[in-house]
Amino acid sequence: MPRGPWPAPRTVRQAAELHALLTTSGGILYRPYAHHLLNSAVNCLLPSEPLHLRYALHVFDRLPASTFLLGTALRACFRAGSSSWGDPDRPFLLFRRTRRAGVRPDAFAFHFLFKCSSSRPHALLCTMLHAACLRTMLPSAAPFVAHSLIHMYVELGLAGDARRAFDEITVKDAVAWTMVISGLAKMGMLGDAQLLLSQAPVRDVISWTSLIAAYTRANRANEAVGCFKSMLSEGIAPDEVTVIGVLSACAQLKDLELGHSLHLLIKEKGMLMDENLVVALINMYAKCGDFVHAQQVFDAMGRGPRPHSWNAIIDGYCKHGHIDVARSLFDQMEVCDLITFNSMMTGYIHSGQLREALLLFMNMRRHDLRVDSFTVVCLLTACASLGALPQGRALHAFIEQRLVEADIYLGTALLDMYMKCGRVDEATIVFQRMGKRDVHTWTAMISGLAFNGMGKAALEHFYQMRRDAVQPNSVTYIAVLTACSHSCLLSEGRLYFDEMRILYNIHPHIGHYGCMIDLLGRSGHLDEAMDLVNTMPIQPNAVIWASILSACRVHKHIDLAQCAAEHLLKLEPDEDGVYVQLYNIYIDSRQWENASKIRMLMEERQVKKTAGYSAITVAGQVHKFVVSDKSHPRILEIIAMLEEISHRLKSVGYSPLTSQITVDVDEEEKEQTLLGHSEKLAIAFGLISLAPNLPVHIIKNLRVCEDCHSAIKLISRLWNREIIVRDRSRFHHFREGKCSCDDFW
DNA sequence: TTAGGGTTAG
């Protein structure tokens, strides 16, 4: 054992040698110098293996308790705690043991205890440590203790406690101000953070930056940019982190001009282009649709092995519909992560390529990626638009088994899936079980009820939403007005259409006008509907003229129908639906000549009729039928069932609506054509293959024809079967001879 | 032995 000063160890090996000396040479341990040496040994050991740290703590256990060593040991625990092998209880056990030995903890001990507690969600423990600290010392006496105390409460999301800890400090230093402001901002208490910022004696780059980032995270990009401007006007220079936050706000606002000027600022100031800044820049350019610059930054900096910048540009391409470019980048990636897959899958889903999305999902396993709630939300969205109920249910089971953490997005996507599959009861159960509901959740519920023809229930949910103090937004009002129009609730619709402006300052856009015009048209107030078309501040679009056209058909208003059709044919000359609607109107009113003119016009313009189909899922397999389809392997049984249907329908006085068929064939053949409609084939197949207690669930790409609608009502009664048909724009729930749409669709 | 802010997917 050398007598002179022993050099502080620099390597694990030197530290181990020192440990050996310290533990074998007895008396030296009691000299303060040994404590310093031990301390530097721990510094060497900390970033190395868990075994070394355990050894160091083992040595602490055998040393006589001292304030100094407690601090060092707690620091060791804290450093270890950030890795997976740290024992979370150790610091608190150490603290208790030393206190029992009569040792008074000092500021450093409390500092590290608070730091250790930040990662443990244990509010009571924190309060007890806080109280112990106050009994021993004043946090203000050592500013860093006050800082770590605030930090601890912030990390645990305890805003009130963080604020109290701050208020307790008698002499508040600049860091304490910054910490409480950034902490409140991080917890989403933006109003409080903003107020404190205005009261702070010094506002530095960090407090401004945290507020900017928090506004951006809360989707309040305008306010984030506002903060940035105030910060500049106070003469505070932004740094890299500030710029990242503002770039993200620019991406949200699609403010390319500001984004580009920030890029210039980065170059001018020679800011460090680290990965985070590169990601933020690429994201800004890509979200603004400036792929020339996005690609430039990406090619210069982002093509590294790590996926973050790839993710930013891939998501940008997906969001702008350039799925193929995104996919080609995706295929070039060496390392993908969950975000890459989720972005790509979302891209595919939004562009309607559901199969590709599901293939990617299958691929995730090969990359050893665990599915998370984002992924499940993507898949549920796909199930919802496909109407894939069994697959959606499988995902629900996956959630119930807690294989993925459920959050508010997941709950909303799940209830939306059930709604879009026509399962109002299951959607309602999901809704009722959700602990937290935001405006999206309520809107999904209201719009789901609306499309399923339960307008009154939708409005009841709207009242309840407001009772729960959730503010409706523009989309909520679309759902509310849809509920009114699908259930013909005219006076309610009028009320809400006016109310949204007065109560919430939401100005109606084309979608709201569309719902209102649809509602007026359906209720037979075609003049009023046309008044609104003529007086609204926006040019009417195809959806609006299509509503007028359908209302004209129901209310037999030929002249107006012609006018609406003319507008539609100008706006969407290739859309077959318009021709078909107008054609049917002429047929209904027996204007054969006009009808054949429409037919000729279609031929002339080479407009092709979209092939109608109906799909039904049996035992996880989707069966798709087109009109007069003979391709199904069980076609003989299906035909036999169709004959039975025809026979039983006629026995209760039903006569097929053959007037809709204009082809010059005999009545028998017309009946056969109607019987071969895809929805009837799908229902016949459902009746022969599904258990009698299961509802028959059909998904159709076009509107249900009138003959099928009447026939299905009767089938539901005769077979005592619930039949659900999702058509192009709504749901029909057939039960006991009635339909939820009240024959209005 | 002591301190604060951040990006990409629904």
Summarize the structure.
By secondary structure, this protein is mainly α.
How far apart, in Å, are the first and last alpha carbons?
A: 95 Å
Mean of residue pLDDT values: 87
Low-confidence regions: none
Helix content: 55-70%
**How does the overall form come out from the CA principal axes?**
elongated
Oligomer: single chain
- How would a textbook summarize the main sheet? 6 strands, mixed
Give the strand order, joined by hyphens, for the main sheet. Answer: 2-1-3-4-5-6
Number of strand segments: 6
- Per DSSP, the total helix count is 39
Q: Return Rg in Å.
A: 34 Å
Structural class: mainly alpha
Strand percentage, roughly?
Answer: under 5%
Keywords: Repeat, Transit peptide
GO molecular function, one term: RNA binding
InterPro entries: DYW_dom, E2_motif, E_motif, PPR_At4g14850-like_plant, PPR_rpt, TPR-like_helical_dom_sf
Protein name: DYW domain-containing protein
Tell me what the structure shows.
It is elongated, with a radius of gyration of 34 Å. The chain is mainly alpha-helical and 745 residues long. Among the domains are: 371-435, no CATH class; 437-507, no CATH class; 625-739, no CATH class. It binds one DNA strand of 10 nucleotides through helix 4, helix 6, helix 8, helix 10 and helix 12.
Describe this protein with a few key phrases.
6 strands, six-stranded mixed sheet, 39 helices, 745 residues, DNA-binding, mainly alpha
Q: What topology emerges from the helices and strands here?
A:
Elements: H1 12-24, H2 32-45, H3 50-62, H4 67-81, H5 90-100, H6 107-117, H7 123-136, H8 143-155, H9 159-168, H10 174-186, H11 190-199, H12 205-217, H13 221-233, H14 240-253, H15 256-269, H16 275-287, H17 291-302, H18 308-319, H19 323-332, H20 338-350, H21 354-364, H22 373-386, H23 389-400, H24 408-420, H25 424-433, H26 439-451, H27 455-467, H28 474-486, H29 490-504, H30 510-522, H31 526-535, H32 542-554, H33 558-571, H34 576-588, H35 592-604, E1 613-618, E2 621-626, H36 635-651, H37 667-675, H38 678-689, E3 696-700, H39 706-718, E4 723-726, E5 731-735, E6 738-739
Parallel strand pairs: 3-4
Antiparallel strand pairs: 1-2, 1-3, 4-5, 5-6
The protein binds one DNA strand of 10 nucleotides through helix 4, helix 6, helix 8, helix 10 and helix 12.
